[in-house]
Amino acid sequence: MKALVCVKRVIDYNVKPRVKSDGTGVDLANVKMSMNPFDEIAVEEAIRLKEKGVVTEIIALSVGPQKAQETLRTALAMGADRAILVQTDDEVEPLAVAKIVKGVAGEEAPGLIITGKQAIDDDSNQVGQMVAALMGRPQGTFANEVTVEGDSVVVKREVDGGLETVKLALPAIVTTDLRLNEPRYASLPNIMKAKSKPLATKAPGDYGVDTAPRLKTLKVSEPPVRSAGIKVPDVDALVAKLKEMGVA
Amino acid sequence: MKTLVWVEHDNASVKDATLAVVTAASKLGEVHLLVAGKGCGAVAEEAAKIEGVGKVHLADDAAYEHALAENVAPLIADLMGHHDAFLAPATTTGKNIAPRVAALLDVMQISDILSVEGEKTFTRPIYAGNAIATVESTDAKLVITVRGTAFAKAAPTGGSGVVEAVSGPSDAGTSSFVGSELAKSERPELTSAKIIVSGGRALKDSETFKQVIFPLADKLNAGVGASRAAVDAGYVPNDYQVGQTGKIVAPEVYIAVGISGAIQHLAGMKDSKTIIAINKDEDAPIFQVADIGLVADLFNAVPELTGKL
Ligand SMILES: Cc1cc2nc3c(=O)[nH]c(=O)nc-3n(C[C@H](O)[C@H](O)[C@H](O)COP(=O)(O)OP(=O)(O)OC[C@H]3O[C@@H](n4cnc5c(N)ncnc54)[C@H](O)[C@@H]3O)c2cc1C
Ligand SMILES: Nc1ncnc2c1ncn2[C@@H]1O[C@H](COP(=O)(O)O)[C@@H](O)[C@H]1O
After folding, report:
1. What is the CATH number of the domain that holds A42?
2. Looking at the partner chain, which of B100, B111, B308 has a beta carbon nearest the beta carbon of A235?
3. How far is residue B153 from each of residues A129, B22, B25, measured CA to CA in Å?
4. In this predicted complex, what is the ipTM?
């Protein structure tokens, strides 16, 4: 079966985002961009399933600007077989991304669609669940362990109280959590090889998807800053503070 | 506006996370609740007593027992025929279900709201809380998840809602619940604890984490949290993780022990009233948000602190 893996180009997780002074958004000019960390985990999981002989072909999909090609090349260097860039310079909301994923899935008929649980820029946590709804297929969100058994997939999920296991009929959608795996680094030879792997470029219109935003961003502002605190010299001073606060 | 609030429960009692969502919903209009589960009549009775609640829709069916999104999302989508907004807590249950509802209704969900600014205008954190966006929905219906720490809890009693049985689509037949491993702890739950003691990578291993962090937490009757690094390394289970992609907490006092203060961690705890940090590196970023900092080796400082309390 094929696996379709969604990868988003986002601000690198090590960069501290800065709000633009005009309040229109976050300054991304000259900022390091990388693959969304949860999507690296998604690519890795697909590769492991291919190594186990469960998955036969891995298709990486990104919706975004031309530069998102770099993100797709990273996925190819890790081990994806081919890539599709649905190119647009607009900011595409999760609902529209989900519709595009559905469109691609309609052509590719993957047995598994793997997305990250959350993009670390918009922090929406929506796309995977939306794809599942639009396709009328089951979802295994926040996956900690994924096991394909015949025509179903067993997903152990990270939930607020601990772990929960569900069994889903394939085709299914899985979204990754942090403990699912540790993504590999692409080796230099694989980075070279990735350059010649196929990367198709499409447009949202090819899938009949209107990317006009449903949410209007009126303003983006800095969060309230915490005022500077104090340092105490030793444990006794900390105990005194806790007593002052009525905690101890 | 008529709102429909997802009641989080375990088929026995209403979970606290529901109460903040009721407060958020009441800012939009009439508050109706949905209790979906199996054998959950008592939950509906309890939910009807929440302050400010009108109708309580009770969907009692084996298909809803484990809140599988495949089964409950179509039920909610049906009920949205006569409601204007669906609100769920930003818990793993809410996050699992709400986007599925939104897509069925063809609306863009507004995730993790911090405030209600108007009928269709909300604030929400983006970029790990390093920016706050004010967004206005242009959709006909609203689908929202609510950050629990951003809204006061509605009073759990005093209301006089009316329970009404509803039925919806039956089991979609595409998913089934296999089992769960839920942590049992005598300590206060993270998202409602007044005091939290969190440990980081510096705690070395599971045994050390227990020996150093738990006694301090027990002395303070505190909940226990952890950084991602501590969870990844297996010191504590996944449900201890505080942060951008873990739990969001805002206790009276948050004590960070051997945690550096990465933005992903700060995203989950920087709205705590008082932050205390113990770290041996005086330049650790955690000190930039700490109200009280102690530069010390935690293996000396924490046992000493526990002993002196
Ligand atoms: C997609 C993504 C999501 C993430 N989500 C989260 C999240 O939700 N929550 C989260 O916490 N992290 C998250 N992270 C990880 C985050 O970036 C950091 O890696 C993590 O928070 C670091 O954990 P730490 O502070 O325990 O470890 P370190 O950064 O290694 O810090 C350990 C600290 O302990 C101190 N120390 C060492 N020994 C001692 C001693 N003897 N006494 C006192 N102090 C000592 C050190 O000075 C250091 O400051 C995420 C990362 C990614 C990429
Ligand atoms: N523009 C995009 N292109 C490809 N995949 C995306 C895009 N946006 C979101 N995704 C996928 O959906 C996941 C969840 O994103 P979100 O719902 O935006 O938090 C991400 O981890 C990606 O796997």
Report:
1. 3.40.50.620
2. B308
3. 28, 8, 12
4. 0.97
